[in-house]
Specification:
Elements (H helix, E strand, L loop, with lengths): L1 E2 L4 H12 L6 E5 L18 H14 L3 E5 L1 H17 L6 H20 L5 E2 L4 E5 L5 E5 L16 H4 L2 E2 L7 H10 L3 H4 L15 H8 L3 H4 L3 E5 L4 E5 L22 E6 L4 E5 L5 E12 L9 E6 L7 E8 L2 E11 L6 E6 L2 E8 L1
Parallel strand pairs: 1-2, 2-3, 4-7, 8-11
Antiparallel strand pairs: 5-6, 8-9, 10-11, 12-15, 12-17, 13-14, 13-16, 14-15, 16-17
Helix pairs in contact: 1-2, 1-6, 3-4
Amino acid sequence: MVAMSGGVDSSVAAVMLHEQGYEVIGLTMKTWDYASSGSSSKETGCCSLDSINDARALAVSFGFPHYILDIRGEFGDSVIDNFVDEYLAGRTPNPCVLCNTYIKWEALLKRANKLDCEFIATGHYANIRQQENGRYVISKGRDTHKDQSYVLWGVSQENLARTQFPLGSYTKSEIRQMAAEMGQLELASKSESYEICFVPDNDYRAFLRHRVEDIDDRIGPGNFILTDGTVVGQHQGYPYYTVGQRKGLGIALGRPVFVTKIMPESNTVVLGDEHELQSREAYVKDVNLVKYAAIDQPMEAVTKIRYKDAGMNSTIVQQDGKMKVEFHHAVKGIAPGQSAVFYEGDDLLGGGFLI
C-alpha cells in the first residue's frame, strides 16, 4: 500500500516498488477540502481534486490499483481541532507530526490490512532499518535539504515494522530525473507546496477566525508588555502571535523586538530583545523513543527544535515522564508546542513536544 499524494515523490516511490516486483496498491487520502477552511484560493496541494486525479492517472498508466480514502472526519478531530486548541492555549502547533502519527499511518495500515498488504510505503525522504535488538530505526535521508525524519518521530515501533521509505537513498533532483525518464514530464516539474494543507493561503490567523467564529469577541485585544511588566502597546489577541515572531507586530519601539512569551490566562504577549529568546534548557513531553526503549541515563544527542534547524549539541535524559534537554550552547526561540527531535548521528532517537 503506497500513500500517493499526487506529487512527484510519492508517485515515483509507487512506480519504483511496482518495477521492483511488488504488488502495489496506491491510496490517496482526502484529509481536507478548501471550502471548509473559508479560503477563496484555488485548491492546490495534496488534498485537491487535481492531485487525486494525478495519482489515479499514474496508477492506471502503470497498471496497479488506486483507491481514495476519505478521512476528513478523523483528520478534523485529531489534527485540526488540536491545531486550534494549541493556538488558544498560547502554543505553536505541529500538525504534520500529528498527522503522521495519528492519521496517515493508522489509516494506511487499517486499509492495508483489509487489502492484505504486508507493507506500507510513503514518499518521505528518510531511511529505516531493523537493529539487532529488534527495534526499527529511522535515519536521515541522503538528501540533507529534503530530509523528513524530523516529522516522523511519533510513528510507533509497531507501525515502523511494516513501513518502507523507497526514496531514502535518493536526492530530490534524482527523483525528478526518474520521473522524467518514466515519461512523466509534467510530474517531474511539478512544484512543491510548503503550506499546511488545511491553511492554503498560509494565513493561520484567518483560519482561526473562520474556525472559531467568536474568537475576537471571546479574546479581543490585550497588552504587549516588556519583561519588566511595562505596557508598551496593544495586540490583536494572543492566539495571533508565536514565540520568536518579529515581523507583523504592529508596534515600533525604536529597536527590533521579538515575542518572548505568550500568557493566555491574561491575554498578554511579552516582547523582548533577541538575547531574551536564548535558552540553555528545555523540557519535552509526550516523548516517543525510536532507537532505544529508554534513555534513563544522560546521553549526548543533537536536538532540533524546528524542521529547518541544523540542530544543537545537547545532553538529554528522561525524568518524570519527560525529556530534559540541556543544550551545550544557548539556542534561540524555543516555542512551546513545536517538536524537539533527538539524533545520534543520522539516527533518530525520538522526539516530543516542547513545553
